[in-house]
Every structure is written in structure tokens, then in C-alpha cells.
Amino acid sequence: MRKKGILFAALAVILSGLLTGCGGQSQTKADNVIQVGTNAEFPPFEFQEGNGEISGFDAELIRAIGKAVGMEVQITHMGFDAIFEGLSRDKVDVGVAAITITDDRKQTVDFTAPYFDAKQYILVPKNSNIKTLKELKGKKIGVQAATTGEAVVQGVFGKTYEGIKAYDETPSAINDLQIGRLDAVVVDSAVVVEFNKKLGEGKFNIVEDNSLPVEQYGMAVKKGNKDMLNKLNEGLKKVKENGEYDKIYQKYFGDHK
Fold first, then answer.
1. Among candidates 116, 125, 176, 122, which has minimal Cα distance to 153?
2. Average pLDDT score, the chain
3. Which residues form the Ionotropic glutamate receptor C-terminal domain (predicted)?
4. Separation between Cα atoms, residue 170 and residue 151, nearest integer Å
5. Which residues, other chains included, contact 246 with Cβ-Cβ below 8 Å and sequence gap of 6+?
6. Which element (helix H / strand E) includes 19?
7. Which of the following CATH numbers is that of domain 120-213: 3.30.300.30, 3.55.50.30, 3.40.50.720, 3.40.190.10?
8. pTM
9. What letter does residue 136 receive in the DSSP assignment?
10. Looking at the domain that runs over 31-117+216-253, which CATH code has it been given?
11. What is the mean pLDDT of residues 207-233?
12. Residue 216 CB neighbour total at 10 angstroms
């Protein structure tokens, strides 16, 4: 019994060591993963393929950044608002979803260096004579909730303007525009162009209001997460220097600037 007890104890120690080793490897792998939250309903920046894989400019860019700094990237689809909640609760490390850098958002998250310039465009039916956002006074305007599109419309007409209809995702707003429930949709420039291609040329007009400001996108991290912020900025710099950024940009936007 004593010899068996010693033998069992020795085996237990060995097994414990093996398990600890496996646990250590697992932990190291986890530490080497960037958990990314996105709203994959905003083409061409992020969208889901038929097999569920998340693609798009943002998706390819963050994967290239991860590769540049030697880290694996895992991307999860969630609501736009949920990205910020996920950051605050450490559910995700990074929010990448065509997020415009604003002073309000800087109060709760930190942003990387800007990686994309955009504007708000207006999508209206072909027979519309609208040329500026202000001309939509009294009209029904669709926007995606919690985005700068909503903020821009509210800035012109006020937060209590009854004509603003906020949607959880842009495709729903586009659908309502198609069936006549809306007079216009205000959304980021590259997104409007992408949707207009799918809707069919000649059915809608894209209006660029020169009075609307240029916006810049940044990748968001939890406030104070300087380690992740530094890694992202390092990776962004590398992909811009090695030409990978331009390659990805060309794939989704061509020569459009």
C-alpha cells in the first residue's frame, strides 16, 4: 500500500505538471489573440459572407494589422452600440466598425490614429430634387442609430425632429427608402455608394452636401488600454509603410478618395 501510494502520488505530480503546461500554453495563445467587435451590416467596411465569415475593408485591415504585430484576430458580429458596451466590459479588445472619431466618444474610449476619411452622403429617389440636407426639412429621413449620420441630421433639424427615423442597421433604412416609407437616407459615403450599386444604377441619386464635414474613422479600445492602442498603431503604421493598406483600399474602393 505504501509503495502504491508513493507511485500514485508521483503520477499525480507528473499529471499536474502536464496539465499546468497545457494551461500555460492555452493562456499564452489567448494573450496572443485580438478579440474584435464589429457590426457586420455596413458594407463595404464589414459584412458577412454566405458562410458567416466576416469580410470587408475593416475586417481585412484589422487582420493585416494583427499579422503585422504577430497576433491572431478573431472578429465577432454584434450591434453597433454593443461594441462600446463590449469594450467597457472587456468582452472585446477592439471595436472596428467604421467608427467616426468624435469628442463624445473619446470620453469613453480611446482611438487609434485615423485610418479612413469619410463624409455623410444622402441617398434619395431618382425623381428627387434634393441637393442639400437642409432641403429635407419636413421629410422623413432614415439613419442608423448612434452613428454620426444620426448626429448630423439631429444637428441640422434638432434631436426632437419627428422626421428622423433611427434604425438598428442601415439595410433596414435602405429597404424602407425603396418601398417609399422614407424620403432619404443619410449614411457614410462609401456605404451609400456600395448600396447604390446593389439597388441598381438609375433608381436613386447620391447627394453630396458640401456643407457637411469630413469625418475620420479610428479603431476603438477601452479607455486607458494603452498596450492594445500602441499595438494597433504600430500595426497600422507597418501596413501603411509596406503597401498592404493601399492593396486593401484598392480592392474595396479602387481609385476613389
1. 122
2. 90
3. 33-255
4. 15
5. 240
6. helix 2-31
7. 3.40.190.10
8. 0.83
9. G
10. 3.40.190.10
11. 97
12. 15
